Amino acid sequence: MTISQLFNVANLFVLPFWTLMILLPNWKVTRRIMESYLPFVLLAGAYLYLFINSITPENAQALSNPQLADIARFFANETAAATGWIHFLVMDLFVGRWIYWEGQKTGIWTIHSLALCFFAGPLGLLSHILTGWIAKTFFPKFQQNEAVTVGEKAASSSGT
């Protein structure tokens, strides 16, 4: 598999997870799939493969004492750029999964934060933190009621 093919496969690989979390967050199948760490293991494996293939002695030295110009030269290499992109895919999906589970536990609305996280990871995280703060500050009773409702739904769907 070429670097370009691996890049394309990784991009497509994450889409079903984002789709489930954003469009079908309360579906039992979504919860079951998002319980797994397997997607992260597979993406991290692709990352490791690319990372090993992108490291040269010059790159290792540049990364050990990062300067902006050196990092820019490093990412000018196609393998290094694919490595960095898969790093983003893994970490953004992991943060998105955390946001998803926080929403499931607390009842805080997450669709906007997940969509932002999908397109710009840190902005989705910031959005979720702010949404949580707003919910706790201005709607504390709503959040408690939602958390109980979500917890009851999860318990009833698991058969307990």
Walkthrough of the structure:
By secondary structure, this protein is mainly alpha-helical. It is built from eight helices and no strands. α6 (78-106) crosses α7 (111-138). It is globular, with a radius of gyration of 19 Å.
Q: What shape does the CA trace take?
A: globular
Radius of gyration: 19 Å
Beta-strand share of residues: under 5%
Assembly of the depicted chains: single chain
| Count of separate DSSP helical elements | 8
Low-pLDDT ranges: none
Whole-number mean pLDDT: 89
- Taken in chain order, the helices and strands follow as HHHHHHHH
- Amino- and carboxy-terminal Cα gap: 46 Å
Number of strands: 0
Q: What structural class do helix, strand and pairing data support? A: mainly alpha
Largest sheet: none
Q: Percentage of helical residues?
A: over 70%
Give the SSE map.
Elements: H1 3-23, H2 28-34, H3 38-54, H4 57-64, H5 68-75, H6 78-106, H7 111-138, H8 140-157
Q: Any key phrases for this structure?
A:
8 helices, 0% strand, mainly alpha
Task: Write a brief structural summary.
The protein is mainly alpha-helical and 160 residues long. Helices cover 85% and strands 0% of the residues.
